[in-house]
Amino acid sequence: MQRSCDTSFLQTAKGDAYQAVKVAIETGYRHIDGALMYMNEHEVGQAIRSKIADGTVTREEIFYCGKLWNTFHPPHMVRPALERTLEMMQLDYVDLYIVEMPIAFKPGDVFFPKDENGKFIYHETDLCATWEALEACKDAGLVKSLGVSNFNKRQLELILNKPGLKHKPVSNQVECHPYFTQPELLSFCRQNASVTLTCPPLLEDEVLVSIAQKHNKTPAQVALRFNIQRGVVVIPKSFTSARIKENFQVGIFDFCLSEDQMEKIEGLNKNMRHVLLPM
């Protein structure tokens, strides 16, 4: 199992992403989750290359996930967007490239285009046409695998049922935690072999706190372990060296939640998102 590090920080000081990814790789993380619109792929790529250069890892041992942003959905813009990521990171390929959202904004380099009233400017594009452009990128060797993010069942079916589908999505990266367990989507993804899933004061919840005390763990580690035992890939994120190491070393792989504890955590579901997507 690859252990993952999320790089989704839009407002960070220069060098923070570079240092965080270096610490993560040195600690043992191998799955790095990033995106062009996070505005730090140049630092992430620099950190990856530095750890390859000093012999800590090989390129094959690193699994990098990049994302196609909403303003690059038109088919003719898909490959240039991916090539922009590769140029920023100075890599020959990414391991996974995913459609960040199933919606499109007005094409261009303004990531959040809005009209004079402050409303998002959307763009009508065909998800299947966008997917075909991604398939061409995979065939060209620019990406190893393709996936999606924030897709619901209907949107997944659009891709899975596309005539002439060459490459199925291998992942659907979504919000998923004890307050938002997404059982229906998880069940659908499990039924479709190549599609798998990727926080209020959740970590202060008395159920998580109580279970954490019994295992001598933190509530965060219990929440991560809960999803791991459900077969969900989790991508923790932090810029704090201690937390990066805590999630990996002290971690979530040296204990198991009982069936009763799993049921108690499942009972916390409130269908409550932490990450709001107003668009």
TrEMBL record:
Site feature (Lowers pKa of active site Tyr) residues: 67
Family as reported in the entry's similarity comment: Belongs to the aldo/keto reductase family.
Organism: Neogobius melanostomus (round goby)
UniProt xrefs under InterPro entries: AKR, Aldo/ket_reductase_CS, NAD(P)_OxRdtase_dom_sf, NADP_OxRdtase_dom
Domain NADP-dependent oxidoreductase positions: 12-198, 205-269
Entries under SUPFAM superfamilies matching the protein: NAD(P)-linked oxidoreductase
Name by which UniProt lists this protein: Aldo-keto reductase family 1 member D1
Pfam families linked to this entry: Aldo_ket_red
Entry GO MF terms: oxidoreductase activity
Cited PROSITE patterns: ALDOKETO_REDUCTASE_1, ALDOKETO_REDUCTASE_2, ALDOKETO_REDUCTASE_3
Active-site residue list: 38
